[in-house]
Amino acid sequence: MVETSTKGYLMVGFAVLVMTLGTIGYTFEGEVDDVPTPNIEGFVFFGDQALPGNAAALFIQAETTITWDRDDIFVVLADEEKKQQCDGVRTNGGGFILSDSNSQTCQYGDSGYEEKASDSSQGLTWKMTSGEYYAGIGTKSGTLPAGSELSIDYSVDLSASIPTYLFSFLIGIGGAAMSRMD
After folding, report:
1. What span, in angstroms and rounded, lies between the C-alpha atoms of 61 and 126?
2. Is it the case that residue 140 has pLDDT exceeding 80?
């Protein structure tokens, strides 16, 4: 019977540890390099590096904050399909965008982005999901951007999600019950 009691205490300890670490969380930071400089007004260009995805979205909650160092651009997040669409338009020179002034495809007004932001001082905050997502930039005003280098920094805050807390709570309750057995 000592063995059952010990297992119960271990389960309670594990549950408390998971809940504590999930509440404290973990943050990692990175930078997306080689984002092409926009040369078409308002059009979005994407970098080749995908932002890290959240493969364990059910158990881990991830919130990404993206900041950039220039005020003359806007930043968008898009999935791989949207990135390929915009890269295809860019490869063709964006001709249909220039000929149709009402088109918002691959521009700031496009509704196909996961998130978008135009204020570099506030940045862009996004709750990550599973999959590959790319950061893209575009010119904010009618002028071409000043300079050719852009630095997009991101930080990802990881913490436990609600199912993790529920699962840990149930393990803790089960462990408490096991520790009381004689």
Report:
1. 11
2. no
